[in-house]
Amino acid sequence: MADCSVETRDLVKRHGSTAAVDHVSLQIKRGEFFSILGPSGAGKTSVLRLLAGFERPDEGEILIEDRPMTGVPPNRRPVNLVFQSYALFPHLTVFQNIAFGLEMRRLPREEIESRVQAALEMVRLGKQRARYPSQLSGGEQQRVALARALVNRPAVVLLDEPLAALDQQLRQEMQVELKAIQEQVGVTMVCVTHHQEEALTMSDRVAVMDRGRVLQVGRPHEIYDAPVSLFVARFIGLSNELTGSVVTLENGMCGVDPSGLHPSRPIRVRCLYNVALGDRVTVVLRPERVRLSTETRPSGDENVLEARVEKAIYSGHELHYLLRLSDHVLWKARVANGAGDRKRFAAGERVFIRWSADEGVVLRA
Amino acid sequence: MNAPVPSDPITTSVEPGEGVARYPGWLLAPGLCWAVLFFFVPLLIVFAVSFAARGTYGGVVWTFRLANYADLLHPLYFRIFAQSILFAAVTTALCLLLGFPLAYYIARLPRRRQGIWLMLVMIPFWTNFLVRTYAWMFILRTEGVMNRLLIGAGLIDAPIELLYSDGAVVLGLVYGYLPFMVLPLYAAVERLDPALVEAAWDLYASRWSVFRRVVLPLTKPGVIAGCLLVFIPSLGAFITPDLLGGARSMMVGNLIQHEYLVVRDWPLGSALSFVLMGFLIVAMAVYYRVDAGMDRQGSQP
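Predict the joint structure of the above. Result:
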């Protein structure tokens, strides 16, 4: 592929009898921020270590900038890894840490000096150049690790859980900063994370992995709004679910009769994937798409389900509701705490859940 | 990832810094009394003797003179000192060369298997040192195992003189003190974060550069500790050169033993002991200065 920075073809890595990486084929475009998202043990770090060259694939092939990487050791690959623990050299200063790669490539002194200085300024650490890593805060260490990779101008920067060691607020700041730096430099970044919000915020595209397999690759909104499986739906954010069977099917919409509930008409949902009449399916709806009202009758394409408020939680910017639809079905709703005219519901109240047909998605159960 | 560690009152109370204030000073007393009575006082006696004169039939005549130290300037003593330092230095270098790969290998094994390997390193300690040195005599002598193996392999035609040589002494010393090198090196490598090695490798460093620029600087305290632990006893060794060495392979340890037990010149033996100690104190001082320098750089976690 012409504009491909990283390509993996049927990559397999086995640890004993289990496949940590199971036939992974990815095509990562030049200049793209690509995240590999999955729970721990999904094999995402193994993919990263294969790309870096620390491990050899049992099957398949890796191409970086169209060059096959088979047999190429890490020190000869045009990639640099930002380690989860940062792995800064404790005996070297910030400057020496960042200069390490350039020195290993025997660049002239003056060029090293100017490139390291530029990298330091890019990550706003110009004043800390003579410090040792132990004298820096977590966020500063993170930026040194990033600068140490970027200064080499690699084809690809690999990031292993880059923000996992930072606290919540710093993590959100760094998400924005990391993305800004990536866009400014234009480098391809491959980021491994188990944090779905992080992946959605920073990435151009996301690959969701589980048990060594890639389940879905897509833009953040595709992954979030159109998950291909229940696993993806559940892993990327909260989801409300209803199981039932397909009773109607017409131009991309299907009607689902939910088991255990008795709505006045079948629930209408977008049909993204092939389903047939009579199939057992699960309707998935994100909690923030749930609207609550006292109005019973549906208008237009809307679905309406009756529920009882089990719990109402005030969390500042949002109101969280736990809604009991039936003995077995409990839904969550998140309503922005904005307009003053919106009614707030209390526990025990009867409400009607409303959402329009194109907001939910139907998946095979 | 900083997972919150549940604070355990028992483990927290013995953390360094807090423990110092908690434990009363009298706990030191037994050890301190022992050290003063059986180490420091005898040392003072030896120090006093080193300035005394030798009695006609051995023993000590209490005077104060520097002649014992002046006698040590004799070229013969100088040669023995120089030879001892050379033997000890070569032994230390060989132990480092052999010990580093071994320590690195053990420290990178799965934790379960590290214990077995460390035990294998230490098993020789369970046998008397003298017995083990005799075993080396058995291996090295003209009709010994080594000569038979070499002849069997067709490398030599007739037995060669392996025993009673400088090489045999160094071999014996390396054999005897290798564990002292491996253990501190193992501890140092074990503390080295494997990610640092990978980071250097990822940053275009060759295997050799990884070792020279990252592994070696970060395990330096272990290297220095190991070198001292090998160098010091090697310098004062006397069993090994006595049994494995030739007529000219005498070391300071043999000389001191000779002065005390054969010549019965205790004052000269004492002076020799103190000069030897002087060398070791200098070696220690060098170690602590380097070590303190490393601390300032923040290399120790």
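The first helix of chain A runs from residue 44 to 52.
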